[in-house]
């Protein structure tokens, strides 16, 4: 019999319930108030009192309201029919909801129960299968999706029967498995999984090493992220976090894209809803939305639902990874998620950590980022979740707790800088503060040597050194004036400007320059390295400035020309001639 309880205290979204039976941490309950059943999650149990966070507004809730516990944790419903859907943080299908505003206590089923899917069996009767083994396949939006044995199944089971190829509803039984205890397990296309529990249905999780091509030069060339890697983009408002995320999600080599808008302003979430359906996927030529799922949670939605939204997104990503797919998960912004954790912690009257965030913020962020990764599945196939989060530090302060704790766990750090954004140097990623730990991995070094060439890493490190040297000299010129430093210093400074203008800056609105394939990035890198390694002769600093401005202009024109076209080769020839003239 389900445990029941009575509300004895309400503090905003935290409600205290006196229970008449057993309840568990993270269990879901429904509180009836004013004719609505409001969903809530147990976050603390003390004696007979359960403290729950309500995922809706608690306005009008009174002491004495009835509560009923469900006996399970917050779950997501997984199956075919999720692609191109817009969900809220609790996986309610927003397109099925009525009216302009979300109504309290209204929950919708996330899948389409009436749609038939064309099922092709993979397993045969008599096969031995484990948890999440592939039983069959359906196609959704040109994407082959696997129908799996229950994720929660323990031990091995035998396939007793499986339906022939044909069209079935998602809730039809497509296979019957016999467990080790002799009990029959009916399998449908639908699975449920608790969002706070990581799926560990894989054999091995090695260090990721395969370059994830994004087409953004400042990432791919200078600080590469890998398939199954983790990265984050901190930066003050207006520095282009969302634009950079859109560029990555549009261009990156991924099968599935999941966007978690966690506590963002409503107008930014509306932008995602209106822009994403219009974006064309450069890999397939069809709409990007076909392989995208949006989890929308605006800043005016209840705080508790905001906290759940990132877990919902990660669990859906893990489900697709189990099918052997490459998933790109973007969360915007994890600062809002951390603020939700802080608000809950404060209402629970827990001991505060730095800036009133929970004491265990570091562990929470670490556990969450740890769920991403590149894995070898039990059947030998590979799948990956690449996670990129954004952080919105107040006032652009990169020393605040969320940024500092994320830095400890994310392997890539793309620091957006107000100064670069003000100078219109986009993407505004600071090349000196940003880093990628993957470039140091021997596995990545070996992979990139085979993929491009053995000199790649050395050349990238050389450019980083030149950028740092250029920054130091720029500071000296600012203090001493142009006449106060030798001409050679001006040459070093302008060489760093060539790197900045030609490699780091990119025009997201130009058809050619918006996406740079690796072959072209290698070509640009080699050209810039040759320009920087050349020794030049100049009589004064004005001569240096004029020469390099002309050179940068030619390089920028080359960036707008189609790769290996006549125009491109002509610009390249002119650049080589200009360099040879001054040597």
Strand and helix map with partners:
Elements: E1 4-11, E2 14-19, E3 27-33, E4 36-46, E5 49-54, E6 66-73, E7 75-78, E8 86-87, E9 116-121, E10 128-129, E11 134-140, E12 143-148, E13 157-162, E14 166-169, E15 175-178, E16 184-187, E17 191-194, H1 217-222, E18 230-234, H2 241-251, E19 256-264, H3 266-275, E20 292-298, H4 303-321, E21 326-332, H5 334-347, H6 361-369, E22 373-376, E23 382-391, H7 401-409, E24 412-413, H8 418-422, E25 435-436, H9 442-451, H10 456-480, H11 487-504, H12 518-533, H13 541-559, H14 566-582
Parallel strand pairs: 8-20, 18-23, 18-24, 19-20, 19-21, 21-23
Antiparallel strand pairs: 1-2, 1-6, 2-5, 3-4, 3-6, 4-5, 7-17, 9-11, 9-14, 10-13, 11-12, 13-15, 15-16, 22-23, 24-25
Helix pairs in contact: 4-5, 6-7, 10-11, 10-12, 11-12, 11-13, 13-14
Domain ATPsynthase alpha/beta subunit barrel-sandwich: 110-196
Family: Belongs to the ATPase alpha/beta chains family.
Enzyme class: translocase
